[in-house]
Structures are given as C-alpha cells and as structure tokens.
C-alpha cells in the first residue's frame, strides 16, 4: 500500500501534541486589532486546542 501524502497547507497551520491532540493559532490577528481590548489581543497570541470535530484532520497530516 502506498504512503499517504501529507496536506502541506494543513501541516503548516496545525500541530499535534504529544498525546495526539491538535493545536492551531487563533484567528483574527492580522489587522483591526487596535479597537480590541488588551485582554482580547493577549488571548489571540495563544494557540487553541481544536475540538473533537477537527480530529478528522489527523488523516491529512499522518506523519506529523
């Protein structure tokens, strides 16, 4: 059986933790941030733990 190709766009945006959970950057960080409170801006710097709905992404990043 041939190897599964990694989806490179997904691999650049999502990483796996040691236990197999998926982490991604929070969205909305590029512009229009001056109007937001400091706590909102600070929260956007953190990575988000993706929910169980997104676990199907494991199949497109099999070797990561």
Q: What report would you give on this structure?
A:
The chain is of the alpha+beta class. It has a single domain, classed as Factor Xa Inhibitor, CATH 4.10.410. The chain contains two helices and three strands. The protein has a three-stranded antiparallel beta sheet. The longest helix is centred in the middle third of the chain and has 7 residues. It is elongated. The mean pLDDT is about 90.
Question: How is this fold's topology laid out?
Answer:
Blueprint: H1 8-13, E1 14-16, E2 22-25, H2 38-44, E3 47-49
Antiparallel strand pairs: 1-2, 2-3
What's the Cα radius of gyration?
15 Å
CA-to-CA gap between the ends?
Answer: 19 Å
Number of domains: 1
Structural class: alpha+beta
Strand order of the largest sheet: 1-2-3
- Which fold name fills CATH's third level, the topology? Factor Xa Inhibitor
Q: What is the approximate shape?
A: elongated
Number of H/I helices: 2
* Percent helix range: 10-25%
Low-pLDDT regions: none
Strand content: 15-25%
CATH architecture: Irregular
> What is the arithmetic mean of pLDDT?
90
What is the string of SSEs from the N terminus onward? HEEHE
Largest sheet: 3 strands, antiparallel
In CATH's first tier, which class applies? Few Secondary Structures
Q: Give the quaternary arrangement of the chains.
A: single chain
- The beta-strand count equals 3
């Amino acid at each position: 059986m041939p190897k599964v190709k990694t989806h490179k766009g997904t691999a650049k945006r999502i990483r796996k933790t040691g236990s197999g959970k998926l982490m991604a950057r929070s969205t909305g960080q590029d512009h229009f941030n001056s109007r937001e409170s400091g706590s909102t801006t600070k929260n956007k710097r953190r990575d988000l733990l993706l929910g169980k709905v997104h676990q199907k992404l494991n199949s497109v990043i099999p070797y990561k």
